[in-house]
């Protein structure tokens, strides 16, 4: 794990605001990046109770923080305090990165660009592809936004709770009137008939995440077509049952580490104005994922 070289009177501060934040990989990832870039910056965990969000934001401004990442459960709650929101933050309804400039709060959602950059890194261009997104939570919202922005041919959202999936699709369809966004319940039957209609499947549910590592959102008795690319946003474990089965079926796979690293890299670049040392950030995450603590979150 990266160690802070030193803190000085000029150290610039950023952090991650969440409740809890103890298992976040972001401090290790960003501090490794600052050390690599030779920046006198430090990234600290900021455990903030849900009732204290407004006070915490005021505190960050008063303490001259450059910015902060925002994680569960504050991604929506911080929005009302932003002076400006990026298009991604506005449309996905969530802020995961704040940049403080001249006393103003700028809110971004770097999950969408992080997801697209992780596809790009795996040589997957979603333009013109037919995608299926499993899940309808915050992560799924960022993914559907990213796919629609990148010109996917169509996106079908499959979710366990029907209303939530329909709501996501209605919301995003209003923002992207030309896109083909549809919804179906996440059932064995709806997955079984996807076969010839999709090129890319993204698991945006939390199914398969530690400690429930034997679970998969794709039932074992539904074949996984070898020509389809299967992508999992879960990165703990890196090889989920979903991806292991897809690989065994001969399909290409993309794991969740890329999105974690690239959402962080984009935040790093917003704050510092410098290119992010992607490989160092990836290694810092890998080291922590392989370490003893299995309870890890973004
Ligand atoms: P995040 O912000 O990380 O996306 P979330 O908003 O809690 O987290 O969303 C979790 C997603 O995983 C949801 O789509 C959830 O489905 P529901 O909307 O039906 O709750 C999905 N999910 C979680 N556990 C699941 C399970 N056991 N089977 C199917 N879907 C599940």
Describe the structure.
The chain is of the alpha/beta class and 298 residues long. It has two domains: 12-109 and 258-290, Leucine Dehydrogenase, chain A, domain 1 (Rossmann fold); 125-251, NAD(P)-binding Rossmann-like Domain (Rossmann fold), CATH 3.40.50. Helices cover 36% and strands 19% of the residues. The chain has ten helices and twelve strands. It has helices spanning 26-37, 53-62, 87-92, 111-121, 138-149, 162-175, 188-192, 241-248, 257-272, 278-290, and strands at residues 12-18, 41-47, 67-70, 84-85, 97-101, 104-108, 130-134, 154-159, 181-185, 200-203, 229-232, 252-254. The strands form two sheets. A six-stranded mixed beta sheet has the order 2-1-3-5-6-4. Helix 1 crosses helix 9 (257-272) and helix 4 (111-121) crosses helix 9 (257-272). The longest helix is centred in the last third of the chain and has 16 residues, at 257-272. The protein starts with 11 loop residues before the first strand and ends in an 8-residue tail after the last helix. The structure holds 2'-monophosphoadenosine-5'-diphosphate.
* Helix-and-strand structural type: alpha/beta
Low-confidence stretches: none
Strand order across the biggest sheet? 2-1-3-5-6-4
Quick one: CATH class of the largest domain? Alpha Beta
Give the helix proportion (percent range). Answer: 25-40%
Q: Strand fraction band? A: 15-25%
* Count of alpha/pi helices: 10
The CATH topology of the largest domain corresponds to Rossmann fold
Helix and strand succession? EHEHEEHEEHEHEHEHEEHEHH
Bound ligand species: 2'-monophosphoadenosine-5'-diphosphate
Question: Main beta sheet: strand number and arrangement?
Answer: 6 strands, mixed
CA-based shape: globular
């Amino acid at each position: 794990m990266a160690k802070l070289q030193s803190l000085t009177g000029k150290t610039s501060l950023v952090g991650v605001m969440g409740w809890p934040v103890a298992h976040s990989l972001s401090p290790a990832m960003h501090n490794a990046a600052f050390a690599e870039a030779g920046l006198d910056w430090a990234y600290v965990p900021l455990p903030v109770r849900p009732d204290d969000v407004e006070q915490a934001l005021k505190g960050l401004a008063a303490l001259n923080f450059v910015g902060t990442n925002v994680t569960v459960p504050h991604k929506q709650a911080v929005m009302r305090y932003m002076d400006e929101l990026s298009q991604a933050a506005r449309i996905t309804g969530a802020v995961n990165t704040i940049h403080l400039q001249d006393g103003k709060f700028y809110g971004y959602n770097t999950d969408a660009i992080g997801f697209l950059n992780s596809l790009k890194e795996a040589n997957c261009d979603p333009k013109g592809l037919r995608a299926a997104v499993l899940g309808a939570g915050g992560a799924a919202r960022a993914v559907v936004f990213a796919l629609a922005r990148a010109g996917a041919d169509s996106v079908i959202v499959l979710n366990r709770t029907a209303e939530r999936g329909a709501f996501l699709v209605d919301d995003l369809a209003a923002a992207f009137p030309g896109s083909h966004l549809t919804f179906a319940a996440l059932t064995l039957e709806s997955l079984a008939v996807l076969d010839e209609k999709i090129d890319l499947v993204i698991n945006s549910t939390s199914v398969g995440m530690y400690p429930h590592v034997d679970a998969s959102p794709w039932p074992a008795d539904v074949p996984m077509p070898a020509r389809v690319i299967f992508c999992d946003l879960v990165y703990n474990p890196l090889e989920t049952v979903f991806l292991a089965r897809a690989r065994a079926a001969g399909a290409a796979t993309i794991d969740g580490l890329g999105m974690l690293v690239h959402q962080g890299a984009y935040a790093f670049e917003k704050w510092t104005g410098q290119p992010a040392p992607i490989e160092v950030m990836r290694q810092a995450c890998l080291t922590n994922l392989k370490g003893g603590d299995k309870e890890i979150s973004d």
